[in-house]
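ARCHIVE CARD
CATEGORY: sequence design from structure
SOURCE FIELD: tokenized fold
FIELD CONTENT:
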């Protein structure tokens, strides 16, 4: 098997949200055994139709017990605005985005002793007639716990996997829009701005950009968009940016300026105005001022009433 090509792009630091699969606590007799694993969360490859690539993955058992895994390739899609991958049963995804049939891994099963690392070899073979654009699959590792003595079989407790983002070269549609850009009225800062970007193209995108917030005096602050993939085919992704500091007052303007695309030359722009005003505190201050004014008037009136009888007595 060949070694990993030098030009391969292994994304080892993608957000944990893109992993999707989490190890759980599983019962073992009367106690609980915690399983902990580290692995390559994501692989991104750009390939021509009819070409092949190979590479290496690593899975490490960080727990104190041995773990056995069975490997399988499956398609995945993203349908929610949080970017949550959904791994699909074999053969359920249409060929537009499917890549499970292109992907293989060896060995197909393995056992890891505590704190041991397993090296896996994967290969990708893109068909000559593959559709240009994004194709998506995952190598799913299914951990099993052997049954207790005297029992048969094993229990499949959870799944985890490495996500593959495969871009097939060729003419593609690159089209995205800002479907939401909302900043609520707030009493205090910072203000949480919701940005939603919808990908209408054929290929996953990863927008880069900033939100610039300007106050009434022209002062500016910046907040960068989190780098995250947006699945193609009309899927939207939410971004939440906290802008400004604790002490904010008045009207503010926020503008989104971002780029995306294979050449990072497509532009996304949106703007919104919002107000920050501590209305509860203002009401309390007004009520205190009113109370002080009424108190002063009452005091003057009561003092005048007490002074009148004394004046009448002096006259008599």
């Amino acid at each position: 098997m060949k070694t990993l090509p030098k030009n391969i792009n292994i994304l080892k630091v993608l957000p944990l949200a893109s992993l999707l699969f989490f190890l759980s606590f599983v019962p073992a007799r009367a106690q609980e055994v915690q399983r902990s694993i580290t692995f390559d969360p994501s692989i991104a490859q750009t390939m021509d139709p009819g070409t092949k690539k190979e590479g290496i993955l690593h899975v490490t058992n960080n727990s104190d017990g041995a773990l056995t895994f069975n490997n399988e390739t499956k398609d995945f899609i993203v349908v929610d605005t949080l970017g949550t991958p959904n791994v699909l049963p074999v053969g359920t995804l249409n060929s537009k985005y499917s890549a499970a049939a292109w992907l293989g891994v060896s060995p197909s099963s393995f056992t890891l002793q505590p704190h041991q690392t397993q090296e896996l070899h994967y290969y990708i073979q893109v068909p000559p007639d593959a559709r240009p654009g994004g194709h998506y699959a995952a190598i799913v590792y299914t951990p099993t716990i052997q049954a207790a003595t005297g029992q048969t079989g094993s229990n499949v407790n959870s799944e985890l996997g490495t996500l593959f983002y495969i871009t097939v070269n060729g003419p593609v549609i690159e089209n995205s829009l800002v479907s939401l850009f909302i900043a609520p009225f707030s009493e205090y800062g910072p203000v949480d701005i919701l940005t939603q970007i919808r990908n209408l193209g054929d290929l996953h995108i990863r927008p880069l950009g900033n939100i610039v917030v300007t106050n009434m005096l022209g002062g500016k602050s910046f907040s960068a968009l989190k780098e995250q993939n947006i699945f193609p085919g009309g899927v939207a992704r939410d971004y939440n940016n906290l802008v400004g500091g604790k002490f904010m007052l008045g009207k503010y303007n926020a503008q989104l300026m971002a780029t995306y695309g294979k050449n990072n030359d497509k532009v996304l722009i949106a703007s919104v105005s919002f107000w920050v005003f501590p209305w509860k505190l203002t009401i309390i201050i007004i009520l205190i001022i009113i109370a002080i004014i009424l108190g002063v008037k009452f005091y003057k009136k009561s003092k005048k009433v007490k002074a009148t009888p004394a004046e009448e007595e002096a006259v008599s």
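CARD ANNOTATION: The helical segments are 279-315. Residues 1-33, 146-157 have pLDDT under 50 and may be disordered.
SHELF: design records, drawer C
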